[in-house]
């Protein structure tokens, strides 16, 4: 068999639990979704535990698992992926933090942890900080969405074993980073120097002067949390001998793409929010199949509805996902193996990620078809794949695509 191409569609936080208000159905069961059901009915189905049964997965750890990595050994925290996702070119050994633009008073006490949810001018503020030198340590700094930002420290002998500077509470001073092990002392010192320097640069920046004039809170400080070292991951391109590209709006997933060697496809209208243009994403994924062996299509929207606790909104999003798959269906080349799954469950009743497994459908020419007729949690439990782990998904796809290497003679 000639090697085939793979389309992996990940609906973030899609899995759910039955709700009384939906007559004891899950949002997936309650939604009208003929296209999702068509793929399930013409493919093979099962349930996936992203990490392990009962373990609520983060989007970062679960994506690593779906891409075939063992998150228990490669995961070093969210900071490095967020930093990569906002466009910082990281190297193994760099130390990354997640940060916020915040408002502090003259005594460095935090008056607002998000600088009044600043959403304009952060790129200019970040630019003023980016490139700062702290002795022999180089600073890379980028703004993320709204008040969010990422900091990367590059230099020899840095350690992620330092405490957060974010006090998490109002009225408290920005904390001094402390070394959690002796080897981390130079890193803690650099972080504290960064806090001071950043404040000095930001407090008189024109963007902040204009904000104060308009009665808005100045973004005059940076609070940091979640230090992590950028992991040295063997790229997916080498592990599975595939050329890979992906579509995703949110920075965390974009950062994981970068870390594992999945090229980013930029799509106009892919926002990572509820207003994202799913049809444009589908078209971009189809186009990317022309020049890639593996294309990943990620949609964040169902997770957002789960966190918000809105069942009707989640149903509406699922019906839009259905339209997205309807756009793909007639245009898929015959030699493409499709996977539809989620990275974890975000039940409306929980408003957070849960340890419930998620449905998986594999579809393509030659794929064994089981008796499942619908794409939902209950139906998937009857599928021929049974219940598998997140890390198994890539193996199954690579095998169905005729790309697996034989184990043994
Ligand atoms: Zn997720
Ligand atoms: Zn989530």
Describe this structure in words.
This protein has helices at 27-30, 34-41, 59-66, 71-74, 79-85, 122-129, 185-203, 206-213, 236-239, 251-260, 278-289, 301-308, 311-328, 377-380, 390-400; strands spanning 5-11, 44-49, 95-104, 110-112, 133-134, 137-143, 148-154, 221-229, 244-247, 263-264, 294-299, 336-341, 358-363, 386-389. It has 15 helices and 14 strands. It starts with a strand and ends in a 9-residue tail after the last helix. The chain is an alpha/beta fold and 409 residues long. The longest helix has 19 residues, at 185-203. It has an eight-stranded mixed sheet with strand order 10-9-11-1-12-13-2-14, with helices on both faces. Strands 3, 4, 5, 6, 7 and 8 form a six-stranded antiparallel sheet that branches. It folds into two domains: 5-75 and 232-400, 3-Layer(aba) Sandwich (Alkaline Phosphatase, subunit A), CATH 3.40.720; 82-228, no CATH class. The protein binds zinc ion (2 copies). Residues 13, 59, 303, 307, 346, 353 line the site of one zinc ion (ZN). One zinc ion binds next to helix 12.
CATH superfamily of the largest domain: Alkaline Phosphatase, subunit A
Output the helix-strand order.
Answer: EHHEHHHEEHEEEHHEHEHEHEHHEEHEH
Tell me what the CATH architecture of the largest domain is. 3-Layer(aba) Sandwich
* Largest beta sheet: strand ordering: 10-9-11-1-12-13-2-14
> In one word, what is the shape?
globular
Bound compounds? zinc ion
> What can be said about the biggest beta sheet?
8 strands, mixed
What structural category characterises the helix and strand content?
Answer: alpha/beta
Radius of gyration: 23 Å
Q: What is the first-to-last residue Cα distance? A: 18 Å
Task: Summarize the amount of helix as a percent range.
Answer: 25-40%
Return the domain count.
2
| Tally of contiguous helical segments | 15
Mean pLDDT score, rounded? 96
């Amino acid at each position: 068999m000639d090697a085939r191409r793979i389309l992996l569609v990940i609906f973030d936080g899609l899995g759910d639990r039955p709700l009384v208000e939906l007559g004891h159905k899950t949002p997936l069961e309650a939604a009208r979704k003929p296209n999702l059901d068509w793929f399930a009915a013409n493919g093979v189905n099962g349930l996936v535990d992203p990490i392990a049964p009962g373990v609520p997965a983060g989007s970062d750890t679960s994506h690593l698992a779906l891409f075939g990595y063992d998150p228990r050994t490669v995961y070093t925290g969210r900071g490095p992926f967020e930093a990569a996702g906002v466009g910082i070119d990281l190297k193994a050994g760099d130390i990354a933090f997640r940060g916020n633009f915040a408002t502090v008073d003259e005594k460095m006490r935090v008056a607002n942890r998000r600088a009044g949810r600043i959403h304009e001018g952060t790129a200019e503020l970040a630019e003023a900080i980016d490139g700062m030198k702290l002795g022999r340590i180089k600073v890379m700094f980028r703004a993320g969405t709204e008040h969010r930002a990422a900091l990367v420290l590059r230099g020899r002998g840095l350690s992620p074993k330092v405490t957060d500077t974010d006090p998490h509470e109002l009225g408290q001073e920005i904390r001094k980073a402390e070394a959690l092990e002796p080897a981390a002392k130079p890193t803690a010192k650099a972080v504290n120097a960064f806090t001071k320097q950043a404040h000095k640069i930001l407090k008189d920046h024109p963007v902040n002067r204009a904000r104060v004039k308009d009665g808005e809170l100045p973004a005059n400080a940076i609070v940091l949390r979640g230090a992590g070292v950028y992991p040295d991951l063997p790229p997916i391109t080498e592990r599975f001998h595939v050329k890979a590209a992906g579509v995703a709006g949110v920075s965390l997933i974009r950062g994981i793409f970068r870390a594992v060697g999945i090229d980013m496809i930029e799509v106009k209208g892919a926002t990572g929010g509820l207003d994202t243009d799913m049809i444009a994403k589908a078209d971009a994924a189809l186009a990317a199949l022309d020049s890639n062996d593996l294309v990943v299509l990620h949609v964040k929207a169902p997770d957002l509805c789960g966190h918000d606790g809105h069942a009707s909104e989640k149903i509406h999003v699922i019906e839009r996902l259905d339209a997205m798959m309807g756009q793909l269906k007639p245009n898929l080349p015959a030699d493409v193996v499709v996977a539809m799954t989620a990275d974890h469950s975000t039940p409306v009743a929980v408003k957070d990620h849960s340890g419930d497994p998620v449905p998986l459908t594999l579809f393509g020419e030659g794929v064994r078809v089981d008796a499942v007729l619908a794409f939902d949690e209950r139906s998937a439990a009857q599928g021929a794949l049974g219940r598998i782990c997140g890390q198994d998904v890539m193996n199954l796809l690579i095998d169905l695509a005729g790309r697996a290497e034989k184990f043994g003679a």
